[in-house]
C-alpha cells in the first residue's frame, strides 16, 4: 500500500511541476513573451451574435410552421378572464 501512495505523490508532484512551467515565467524567472491577441472587440461580438440569433429565429420559425401544418402542435388561445 505504501509504494502505491508514494507513487501517487510522485505523480502528483510531477504534474504540479509541469503546470508550474506552463505559466507566465520561464524556469529562470524571466517573463515569457505575451501571446498574440485578436483585437476584434465589440465588432467581433456583434458579427458573431447577430447571425447566430437570426439563424436560430429562422430555424425555429420553420420548425413551428412544420409542426402546425402536420397538426403535431397547434397553439391554443387561452382566455384569461
Task: Walk me through what this model shows.
It contains 2 helices and no strands. The chain has 81 residues and is mostly helical. The chain has one domain. The longest helix has 29 residues, at 41-69. The relative contact order is 0.05.
Name a few traits of the molecule.
single chain; 81 residues; mainly alpha; 60% helix; elongated; ion transport; transit peptide; MCU_reg; transmembrane helix; calcium
Contiguous helical run count: 2
Order of helices and strands: HH
Estimated structural class? mainly alpha
User: What is the residue-mean pLDDT, rounded to a whole number?
Assistant: 80
What is the alpha-carbon Rg in Å? 28 Å
How many domains make up the coordinates? 1
The residue ranges in which pLDDT falls below 50 over 5 or more consecutive positions are none
Biggest β-sheet description: none
| Beta-strand share of residues | under 5%
Q: Name the overall outline.
A: elongated
Number of strands: 0
Distance between the amino and carboxyl termini: 73 Å
Helix share, percent: 55-70%
Subcellular location: Mitochondrion inner membrane
InterPro entries: MCU_reg
Family: Belongs to the SMDT1/EMRE family.
Subunit structure: Component of the uniplex complex. Interacts (via the transmembrane region) with MCU (via the first transmembrane region); the interaction is direct.
Amino acid at each position: 500500500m505504501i509504494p502505491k501512495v508514494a507513487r501517487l505523490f510522485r505523480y502528483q508532484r510531477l504534474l504540479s511541476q509541469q503546470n508550474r512551467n506552463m505559466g507566465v515565467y520561464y524556469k529562470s524567472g524571466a517573463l515569457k513573451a505575451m501571446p498574440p491577441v485578436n483585437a476584434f472587440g465589440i465588432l467581433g461580438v456583434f458579427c458573431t451574435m447577430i447571425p447566430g440569433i437570426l439563424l436560430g429565429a429562422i430555424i425555429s420559425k420553420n420548425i413551428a410552421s412544420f409542426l402546425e401544418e402536420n397538426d403535431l402542435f397547434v397553439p391554443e388561445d387561452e382566455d384569461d378572464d
